[in-house]
Amino acid sequence: MLYDKPQTLKPPRVDVLMVTPWLAPIIWDGSFNIDILNAQFHQRNVRVGITVFAIKKYTVFVKTFIETAEQFFMVGHKVNYYVFTDQANEIVNLTLTEGRQLVILEVPSYKRWQEVSMRRMEMIRDHARQRFFKEVDFLVCVDVDMKFSDSVGVEILSDVFGTVHPSYYNGPRNRFTYERRPRSTAYIPRDEGDFYYAGGHFGGTVAEVYKLTNFCHNAMMTDKEKNIEAIWHDESYVNKYFLYHKPTKILSPEYLWISGYGVPVFLRRRRVVTLLKNNNAIRNKRALLNIKSYKT
Ligand code: 4GW
Ligand code: MN
User: Fold this and answer.
1) Contact 1, 120 (CB under 8 A)
2) Rounded Cα–Cα distance for residues 54 and 250 (Å)
3) Global pTM?
4) Which of 92, 132, 160, 230 could crosslink 236 through cysteines, CB 3.0-4.6 Å?
5) Domains observed in the chain
């Protein structure tokens, strides 16, 4: 394989941070050569699982999610889609590329939406232990209300990775929306914190994702007994975990961008974008969800 030699005295980019103080790479366009990485991961015959939850009305997001993942997510590698849902019959049957399969996992629903979101940790943990470790090497855990719009490949894979939240990539740490009540296990003091990580995109090896989800679930249960729930639910516990168990790779906001935020110059690609939800239709109990109520 022919490619340009890396240059010791010439970093490919100087407009963004490309490595953390604990030497974890931060993944931006221009910071990696995907051909080299693909060759390395093909040699290892890597298998990737992507977990996504479609509970209650969120089943409506699955089609776009999988269709765009077929186009952009880990193209050329083995992929298992793990769709956790309370309504298996609502999941559309899509034709997938060779080497890729859809696994539907029936799970319970919860009454409060905060709990729907938070219980993902327990369910990922339990399935990691029961089956994921036999079937895949890495897990990528994402929200379902998003679509892929540019390539997301093996450059994201590492022992344990998190994603910089698109709303807080540039602020001071004391303004991050960490949990600030010392009573909560998710508490982070104002003078600590590296990044504000998004709850909607993290991953790693099955063993590391097991540790992360187990920590978060246990922390939530401790708080539940104390009648306290962290301000941003599962995201607050992910941030606490990553403060004291540093990620080995960090994804830039290219990997989770909010449609409607515009495109700052440093953002050369938008690989994953959130969908604009019609929050009334999707969140209102009585409203019948119209398939056109979200924009792609
Ligand atoms: C308010 O009424 C709701 S419902 C907030 C989240 C809800 C929800 C979330 C749901 O009813 N069903 C569901 O499957 N989820 C899952 O949790 C889904 O995978 C979703 O992407 C994830 C996080 O919720 P979210 O995407 O609505 O959270 P944000 O707006 O912070 O991205
Ligand atoms: Mn979301």
Assistant:
1) no
2) 26
3) 0.95
4) 230
5) 33-288 (3.90.550.10)
